[in-house]
Specification:
Blueprint: E1 8-13, H1 21-34, E2 39-44, H2 46-49, H3 56-72, E3 80-84, H4 90-99, H5 104-108, H6 111-118, H7 125-139, E4 145-148, H8 153-170, E5 178-181, H9 210-218, H10 237-245, H11 248-260, H12 265-291, H13 294-323
Parallel strand pairs: 1-2, 2-3, 4-5
Helix pairs in contact: 3-12, 4-7, 4-13, 7-8, 9-12, 10-12
The protein binds adenosine-5'-diphosphate and tryptophan.
């Protein structure tokens, strides 16, 4: 990973269900690594989630769960600021202001919007305006670095565009952030060998009990080469997943066994199962503890929101003053 130090780093996490190991290696692990030596702001994007979840209980549950999951996986609230998007009402105010300098054409070009419409999802204004809310999320904290997956690259370009436009109209007001596209080294394959994704139904979740994890791992699709046959480790899904969890010598050992023949996918799956299980066991236990400590989690999120809000108010005062919004209270 390119070294990023002493920066204000920000990212939003969609509360969209159980996290899987693709999310972990593709995003969460990097988010957590940034907390060393940077000022990190991470929030659960529950306002964005309203474009897809319109059920009170589900939204509440999913919001809290993803916050707990990040804490369980190593986000340290002493080092990084964790909060819920809707606790910072200034974000929606900035969204409006940005929308007045955002041409419709810019939003109409958004891939994520076009993809959803193409899939037949009937668009509401929230879905269309999604990138403006995302820009406000970023710009309101004077964020410098925004670590996101490749799918969010265009949203980041739109954010920069909006900041530059607002600055051009009202004078230097907003910090123009940089995207940090998280390295593709970790495109994690799913059970069927395609990219692991909720939308393909091929995920291995991070937090599974041993029995369910075993069922998932045993169902990984492989070819039907006989046990004795030598097998190409680079063309097999079990090995691709094993590499994420094993040390270099362990990887080498499994490679050699595959190449030599007489080593079947069933044995490799068993080794993989043990690796995944032991890798996430401490987080699984920590998650269990946190589920019983909702008061503590609430305190973390409150302290996070207070810190984030202070910064948001500072930036909003600057924005209001420069845009000519009078303020009497
Ligand atoms: P999903 O495809 O399951 O809906 P999301 O789009 O919510 O996952 O992804 C959340 C984050 O996890 C993004 O930053 C994305 O790049 C990363 N991510 C998701 N799946 C993978 C994968 N299979 N390999 C690497 N990174 C992934
Ligand atoms: N749109 C992002 C996603 O789907 C989540 C998100 C919302 C975000 N606001 C953000 C990411 C601000 C980075 C910065 O993953």
């Amino acid at each position: 990973m390119k070294a990023v130090k002493n920066k204000r780093v920000l990212s939003g996490i969609q509360p969209s269900g159980e996290l899987h190991i693709g999310n972990y290696f593709g995003a969460i692990r990097q988010h957590i690594a940034f907390q060393e030596g940077n000022e990190c702001f991470y929030f659960v994007a529950n306002l964005h989630a309203m474009t897809t979840i319109q059920d009170k209980k589900k939204l509440q549950q999913a919001t809290l769960q993803v916050a707990i999951d990040y804490l369980a996986l190593g986000l340290d609230p002493q080092k990084a600021t964790l909060f819920i998007q809707s606790d910072i009402p200034e974000v929606t105010e900035l969204t409006w202001i940005l929308s007045t300098v955002t041409p419709l054409g810019l939003l109409e070009r958004a891939h994520s919007y076009k993809d959803k419409v193409a899939k037949g999802i009937s668009a509401n204004h929230g879905l269309f305006a999604y990138p403006v809310l995302m820009a406000a999320d970023i710009l309101i904290y004077d964020s410098e670095i925004v670590p996101v997956g490749k799918d969010q690259k265009q949203h980041l370009e739109m954010t920069r565009d909006m900041a530059v436009r607002l600055n051009a109209v009202f004078g230097e007001t907003l910090v123009v952030p940089e995207a940090y596209i998280m390295p593709e080294v970790a495109v994690v394959p799913g059970l069927d060998g395609q990219k692991m994704s909720k939308s393909y139904g091929n995920t291995i979740e991070i937090f599974l009990d041993y029995k369910t994890l075993k069922q998932k791992v045993m169902s990984i699709v492989t070819d039907s080469a006989p046990l004795e046959a030598p097998k190409d480790p680079e063309k097999n899904n079990v090995y691709a997943l094993y590499k994420l969890f094993a040390t270099a010598p362990e990887q080498q050992e499994m490679r050699e066994k595959f190449l030599a023949g007489g080593y079947g996918y069933g044995s490799a799956k068993k080794e993989l199962l043990e690796k995944i299980h032991s890798y996430f066991l401490p987080a699984l236990e920590q998650r269990q503890r946190l589920m019983n400590e909702k008061t503590y989690v609430g305190e973390v999120l409150k302290a996070g929101a207070e810190k984030a809000r202070q910064k948001a108010q500072e930036v909003m005062n600057r924005v209001r003053a420069n845009c000519g919004l009078l303020k009497f209270i």
